[in-house]
Amino acid sequence: MTEAPLIAILDDEPEIRRLLSAALEDAGFRTQTYGRATEFEAALRRIMPDACLIDLGLPDRDGLALVHRLATESGAAIIIISGRAQVQDRVTGLELGADDYIIKPFEPAEVVARIRARLRRPAQQQGRNAQSLRFAGWSADFDRYTLTSPDGIEVPLSHAEAEVLRMFTDNPRRLITRAQMLETLGGTAGDSFDRAMDVRISRLRTKLGEDPKNPHLIKTIYGAGYIFLAEIEQTP
């Protein structure tokens, strides 16, 4: 029997932690809750959550710095839950690596739905026997959230970067429009989504050693979208 996904909740308000934990456990998830960033970071040495709900207004740490660290070091989905409702706050959170941004006050059912949407795609992908694949000398492991270069150097992927790469490798040599990205990756249409996608693709290009002026794997079709130019070879 497969163990239920583990959701880590970091918020300094006990009532919000209780509300989120109850809603998620009623929906079949496991939860661990934390009121301070130091507690949460210590727990990450022992647990591997499938998703993290992160409040930005923490008493002992800048929430955005924590989001950025998680995005670079963890394969967990990252969802910000914050009272900061300005567009620039949402854009910054997404640019730093968050997968989603929910504004307080929120409906617990919406949070549950957003987490399900973020975790549904990896579950669907398992049946395709393509969790590991090769392209242009690179190896991608979507179970471990890693890339391995032709020289054998391993590069970590954030959850958001892995989702973008997965979208490309599922659709090689085909134009992927912004509308298709929105449908595949989820989110809300608008400038914040577009900027977040641009940042994720830029980071992915950097990890793939792409020349930003002359990329040979991820080609921009201005005004239309992107094309992933590599041939895909699935590995056992």
From TrEMBL:
Q: Which UniProt keywords apply?
A: DNA-binding, Phosphoprotein, Transcription, Transcription regulation, Two-component regulatory system
Instruction: Indicate the segments forming the OmpR/PhoB-type domain, all copies.
Output: 130-230
Please verify whether the record's keywords include Phosphoprotein: yes
Sites where 4-aspartylphosphate occurs are at D55
**DNA-binding region, residue intervals:** 130-230
In what residue span(s) does the Response regulatory domain sit? 6-119
This protein's superkingdom? Bacteria
The name this protein carries in UniProt is Response regulator transcription factor
This protein's species is: Paracoccus onchidii
